[in-house]
Amino acid sequence: NAGVTQTPKFQVLKTGQSMTLQCAQDMNHEYMSWYRQDPGMGLRLIHYSVGAGITDQGEVPNGYNVSRSTTEDFPLRLLSAAPSQTSVYFCASSREPGHTTYEQYFGPGTRLTVT
Amino acid sequence: QQPVQSPQAVILREGEDAVINCSSSKALYSVHWYRQKHGEAPVFLMILLKGGEQKGHEKISASFNEKKQQSSLYLTASQLSYSGTYFCGPRDFGNEKLTFGTGTRLTIIP
After folding, report:
1. How far apart are CA A108 and CA A103, in angstroms?
2. Distance (Å, rounded) from C-alpha B84 to C-alpha B86?
3. CB-CB under 8 Å, A42 with B43
4. How confident is the model at residue A97 (pLDDT cuts 50, 70, 90)?
């Protein structure tokens, strides 16, 4: 199993550009989520999904869109990039909530810089 | 509201013990703990469930006080490999999402 994969690993955008961060998992996990990590702020939840076709907002959803058309993929779209979105983005997946084993598996991250 | 962790940072010598605390403003169902090495993704350590069940790491223990809405992570006889940033992730009832605290940076020196 590849686990959770993210592409690209690094990206530089200009203010106002849009792009999609890709996330895929091959563990048949129902739950997927996106976090951003900034110095001193820890991991903040952007959006999450409990299954295909179902998404919901996390703590910091503004400026980001998500969709979940398949169990495997959970892309994150930046609509109009701003310097405040410069961050490291992690995608994570886990079994459906309710299982006793509920650990989250994280992807390697995407380092995004907006100039 | 983000869970609160304390301390924010701690430096220990190899072999010393450490305690990391996590507080939530909500009634908790479970608490997750993760460790992140510099430049890497967070990695699962353990889960503590309501009722006292604990799943995870063999050498690191934790407690879960449901009434106080708190959890503590205990690292005994710390090793150099314990260095990293530790995050707690309290889950509250009826909430499927997992949010994390601001993290505790642990540095172990020889």
Report:
1. 16
2. 6
3. no
4. low
Nearest CA in chain B to A40: B102
Please give the mean pLDDT across all residues of chain A.
93
Residues in chain A: 115
Report the residue from A33, A42, A102 with minimal CB separation from B103.
A42
For position B97, what pLDDT does the model report? 83
Q: pLDDT, tens digit, for every residue of A56-66? A: 999 999 999 99
Instruction: Please answer yes or no on whether A43 and B49 come within 8 Å at the CB atom.
Output: no
Nearest to B42 among A50, A101, A106 (CB): A106
pLDDT band at B56 (very low <50, low <70, confident <90, very high): low
A98–chain B nearest CA distance, Å: 9
Question: A110 pLDDT band (50/70/90 cuts)?
Answer: very high
Say how far apart CA B11 and CA A74 lie, in whole Å.
38
Q: For residue A56, with 0-12 CB atoms within 10 Å meaning exposed, 13-18 middle and 19 or more buried, which class applies?
A: middle
- Type of residue at A81: A
Q: What does the radius of gyration of chain A's CA atoms come to, in whole angstroms? A: 13
B21 C-beta neighbours (distance < 10 Å), count: 16
